[in-house]
Design a protein that fits this description.
CATH superfamily of the largest domain in chain B: Periplasmic binding protein-like II
Order of helices and strands of chain A: HHHHHHHHHH
CATH class of the largest domain in chain B: Alpha Beta
Structural class of chain B: alpha/beta
CATH topology of chain A: MetI-like fold
Radius of gyration of chain B: 22 Å
Number of helices of chain A: 10
Number of domains of chain B: 2
Oligomer: heterodimer
Family (chain A): Belongs to the binding-protein-dependent transport system permease family. HisMQ subfamily.
CATH architecture of chain A: Orthogonal Bundle
Shape of chain B: elongated
Keywords (chain A): Amino-acid transport, Cell inner membrane, Cell membrane, Membrane, Transmembrane, Transmembrane helix, Transport
Structural class of chain A: mainly alpha
CATH architecture of the largest domain in chain B: 3-Layer(aba) Sandwich
CATH topology of the largest domain in chain B: D-Maltodextrin-Binding Protein, domain 2
Transmembrane segments (chain A): 32-52, 64-86, 171-194, 206-225
Shape of chain A: flat
Distance between the termini of chain A: 43 Å
CATH class of chain A: Mainly Alpha
Subcellular location (chain A): Cell inner membrane; Cell membrane
Number of strands of chain B: 12
Largest sheet of chain B: 5 strands, mixed
Number of domains of chain A: 1
Radius of gyration of chain A: 22 Å
CATH superfamily of chain A: MetI-like
Distance between the termini of chain B: 60 Å
Number of strands of chain A: 0
Order of helices and strands of chain B: HEEEHEHEHEEEHEHEHEEHH
Helix content of chain A: over 70%
Number of helices of chain B: 9
Protein name (chain A): Arginine ABC transporter permease protein ArtM
Largest sheet of chain A: none
Strand order of the largest sheet of chain B: 4-1-5-12-6
């Protein structure tokens, strides 16, 4: 039960009614689902791809390079248009089981976002992997560790420490990029704001409120990443602090 | 020298204000292209039903009019920011918009039409028959309001910014049926093979009015007077016949 003064304030205005607040809430849930899923899937694929990208054999690293080049070299909006509207134009697609997936806007958007964030994350992790100090690898070799053990025990943990700051940026960018999901009829936070804006023609009320929602989400992300950084980089803290 | 310049500019100001004392300057905004209401012909000249009507109205009001092109999203903000004085760009009169702007009496009302593939056979007037269907509308239109109020919870509503994106999804079978302004549907959907009009076209809302700033009550009075005159003396009918095969007069 909200306090009386909030209820009184809500009664007096036309834009923040219980109904529009619910629309914003549903939009927030959609945004969080979409961004969370694409980040998790993107990260899960990015780690092996980043390792493949550092392999010397060009037949292994080449395709990964091409993939990251294509998805980092084109705007996410274009990728989303191609995957959402383009796929629907393939003759006969409506009769295949793929249509069950591509019919709803959620999965094409999830696919586009995942491919995009995965490409960026691959490059972030690759950068961290190739900047592993040579001495660490030599020491690991001297201990008789094989390639897999070196990766697991030395290279990846030390790369994770170097990648986490850049990756937190990528996560925040992804949250903000997800605003374009509203162009393919997904009612995310931005979609809810656009619907409400077009109903009441009050751009400030609709968009400033939604901007605040994104800021709250960003604040939570920053907080979580600070905790992760503190954990991963605890060896850098001064002794005794 | 300075005094002379001030004197000269004062004289100039008096001259110009004197010349236009009985002539009102009005800037009228249109969002083009929106055939047949406002669009550019092959010579690049602004034309269309609303443009012709606006010109006739200006003549009736003895006003000096300038036509401005403005994208739809910035229409009301632009009006309130005084970038122009009137909107004559198929803006339907709704209570929400009337909170922000002052509307004249309606000057036309086109019906909303249901359009779907040839295979579509549900009765659009029967809400229960529409259960589970996916309906496309343009965001913020009177058709959007109608579907939201009458059918939300029964059908899935998808809202689009442009009619083009909506028609793409209708072709791609993501939508079962669309509910759009009749002239738009006629041009975008009916022009394609395999699509038809479903059920009867419905007149929704009060129609389209000239939008003005709330404080411009005197302009509204003149606009209403001019529109009433045009509707009575046959000018309106002549312009309407030029662009429509059906009746849009209110």
């Amino acid at each position: 039960m909200p306090p009386d003064f909030i209820a009184a304030w809500l009664n007096r205005n036309e834009i923040f009614t219980a109904m529009t607040i619910m629309e914003y809430w549903d939009g927030m849930v959609t945004t969080v689902q979409l961004v969370f899923l694409c980040l998790i899937i993107g990260l899960a694929f990015a780690v092996p791809l980043a390792i493949l990208r550092t392999v010397k054999n060009p037949f292994v690293s080449g395709p990964v390079w091409l993939y990251t080049y294509i998805f980092r070299g084109t705007p996410l909006l274009i990728q989303l248009y191609i995957i959402y509207y383009g796929v629907a134009q393939i003759p006969g697609i409506q009769e295949t089981f793929w249509w069950e997936i591509f019919r709803e806007p959620f999965y094409p958007a999830l696919l586009a976002f995942t491919l995009n964030t995965c490409a960026y994350t691959t490059e972030i992790i690759r950068g961290a992997i190739i900047s592993t100090p040579h001495g660490e690898i030599e020491a690991a070799k001297a201990y008789g560790m094989n390639w897999i053990m070196r990766m697991r025990r030395i290279v990846l943990p030390s790369a994770a420490r170097r990648a986490v700051q850049a990756y937190s940026n990528e996560v925040i960018f992804m949250l903000h990029s997800s605003a374009i999901a509203s162009v393919v009829t997904i009612v995310d936070l931005t979609g809810a704001a656009r619907n409400i804006y077009s109903r009441f023609y009050a751009p400030f009320d609709a968009f400033i409120f939604v901007a605040l929602c994104y800021m709250v989400l960003t604040f939570i992300l920053v907080f979580v990443f600070r905790k992760i950084e503190n954990h991963l980089l605890r060896h850098q803290r001064p002794v005794g602090s | 020298m300075k005094k002379l310049m001030i004197a000269a500019s004062c004289a100039l100001a008096m001259l110009t204000s004197g010349a236009h004392a009985d002539e009102r300057n009005l800037r009228i905004a249109f969002d083009v292209p929106y055939e047949p209401f406002e669009y550019k012909d092959e010579n690049g000249d602004l034309t269309g039903f609303e443009v012709d009507l606006a010109a006739a109205m200006c003549e009736e009001m003895k006003a000096d009019c300038e036509f401005v092109i403005q994208a739809w999203d910035g229409m009301i903000p632009g009006l309130l920011a005084r970038k122009f004085d009137l909107i004559m760009s198929s803006m339907s009169i709704t209570p929400e918009r009337a909170e922000r702007v002052l509307f004249s009496e309606p000057y036309y009302n086109t019906p909303g039409g249901w359009f779907g593939p040839d295979s579509f056979n549900a009765d659009v007037t029967d809400v229960s028959a529409m259960k589970g269907k996916t309906v496309g509308v343009q965001r913020g239109t009177t058709m959007d309001t109608f579907v939201t109020e009458e059918m939300s919870g029964v059908v899935t509503i998808k809202r689009y910014t442009t009619a083009d994106d909506m028609v793409l999804d209708l072709e791609g079978q993501r939508l079962d049926v669309v509910f759009v302004d009749y002239p738009v549907g006629e041009q975008t959907v009916l022009s394609k093979d395999g699509f038809k009009e479903v059920g009867e076209a419905v007149k929704l809302g009060e129609g389209v009015g000239v939008a003005m700033r709330k404080r411009d009550k005197d302009v509204a009075e003149e606009v209403n007077k001019a529109l009433r005159k045009l509707k009575e003396d046959g000018t309106y009918d002549a312009i309407m016949k030029k662009y429509f095969a059906y009746d849009v007069k209110v």
